[in-house]
């Protein structure tokens, strides 16, 4: 865990106004939540900072962890904010209590970096807008078996291109940025709101053509593990109601301190403060078609076995009561 993550996690708990020890003394239900700190989780931090969870009688504890689905499946986390990965489908196939309970981020033009190609201008003399120009180029798309690979493959398939025609250097974001500027790769794609706008001075252009192809595709969700799925439904629904209240506040223009702190260290978060207020799914609705696409991609890639239905990875018991409690009419 990075020091910055520790600081943000501690700041969130302090803003909630209730320390873990105090919550334990009060006998509040503890909910261990896995979250990777990036601008897209701002609505969750909004709910945390405003004390919504505490007011709902919940003791929410943070675990700053990127690979959350396996931890939820193992029961080490009760919930997580994460993309749909093969780990989820595989866990369900093996009978594990892990389910999607609420929809979150969608690919939204002009907001964040999901589906954006950061390309070296010199490598694309005819421009980057025609997806066919990507063939043969060396494009890094984050770690495998994740949202970056899923979005990239979906862009390729919808454009009639075999993803295998585009070489894939597997690099982390820092490595990819350095390689892109140095010219050893031709492009990169990242779902995270990384501070990348400054690269224009190094001959790097931001291309939205791919993002337009996957516009409104849902790629992030809240998932529950056995710790919440086997509890009284009211506990999980109260948790989601607090999340929905955070989304509503954020979309109304309120900025949590978490995002202000993030923007101070990662310039890319500034665009979220200015522009990204409507990328969350309305009312937390789960887009089953997006889940189906993720499942089919996972099977086609050989990451999951066929036979897992979309309905089997979704639990609808919590969202309806949560919407009602949060005063959301759909």
Core attributes:
D-Maltodextrin-Binding Protein, domain 2; alpha/beta; five-stranded mixed sheet; 15 helices; 2 domains; 40% helix; 330 residues
Polypeptide structure, described:
The chain is α/β, with parallel strands linked by helices and 330 residues long. It has two domains: 3-106 and 218-325, Periplasmic binding protein-like II (D-Maltodextrin-Binding Protein, domain 2); 117-213, Periplasmic binding protein-like II (D-Maltodextrin-Binding Protein, domain 2), CATH 3.40.190.10. Helix content is 40%, strand content 12%. The protein has 15 helices and nine strands. It has helices at residues 3-16, 20-26, 42-49, 52-55, 68-73, 86-93, 147-158, 173-182, 209-213, 226-229, 233-251, 257-265, 269-274, 288-300, 319-325; strands at residues 30-35, 59-64, 79-82, 99-103, 117-120, 139-140, 187-189, 204-207, 221-224. The protein has a five-stranded mixed β-sheet. Strands 6-7-5-8 form a four-stranded mixed β-sheet. Helix 1 (3-16) packs across helix 3 and helix 3 crosses helix 11. The radius of gyration is 20 Å and the shape is globular.
Q: How are the SSEs placed, and which strands pair?
A:
Elements: H1 3-16, H2 20-26, E1 30-35, H3 42-49, H4 52-55, E2 59-64, H5 68-73, E3 79-82, H6 86-93, E4 99-103, E5 117-120, E6 139-140, H7 147-158, H8 173-182, E7 187-189, E8 204-207, H9 209-213, E9 221-224, H10 226-229, H11 233-251, H12 257-265, H13 269-274, H14 288-300, H15 319-325
Helix pairs in contact: 1-3, 3-11, 11-15
